[in-house]
Amino acid sequence: MKNLDVKKLLVLIAIIAIIVILVIFGSKLVGKESKPTEEESKEVETLVTKYFANVTFGYSTSYKGIDVLFSKDKTTYDDIDKKAILNLAIRYTTENEIDVSVSSEIIKLINNSGKYGDVSNYAAYKGEGLRKAIKELYGVDFKDGSEISDYGFLYDFIYVYDYDIYFMKRNQTTDIYDSNKGIDYTIVNTSKKDDKVSITLAIAYIYRNGNERKYAKDINGENIIAEGLTEFPKDKAKEFDNFKFTLTKNNDGKYIFESVEKVN
Question: Which of 104, 158, 227, 246 could disulfide-link to 167, CB 3.0 to 4.6 Å?
Fold first, then answer.
């Protein structure tokens, strides 16, 4: 009888040991970083390099506003000005076959109403198309409304509720863009964790001299990392500020913006 009890005890210990091993091994697998598929990498890299890395384009800076994004340690959707969101959505629609066209008859009706001044020379976009673009980029339902800037952003957006149309017009802000300056980047790392894919970019402020460039770490060009080059010095990527863009897969299997944050 005692031998039987010992055998039961040994079996119980063995079962407990197996459970412990499985729990430990399983916990290591959960949330483990991996490499995304080639298709996932291509989708996310395109979204980041064509759109999200330029989300603040339109501010009046010597870098056309692109530098505004990289002046912050972390940015989420709620931190992005609505004017910048609309501006990016417009660029997204033109490259992704989203219809935002407005008939000349409707523009004429709005213009004749006199409620919004002379809109005949403003760019006009369907609100439905812009909301679709914003949904695809950020996964949110955009709240419509006019976005007028007193200073700092180059464009104003006038929303006409009755026709669900946005007019974009140039405001009085002075454009201080310097054609000899720019921002360049290279992809440092791409990783996947659960339903998120992250891409880390090394960001450089460039100063052009003919075909050659100086690559600086800072916006004022005081900390020069490399110069006399025609392309990004990838071997020095870690010496520049690195920013990680994180995108999350939505219910449709598409990746949407979650955040960008400085990682070094």
Answer: 158
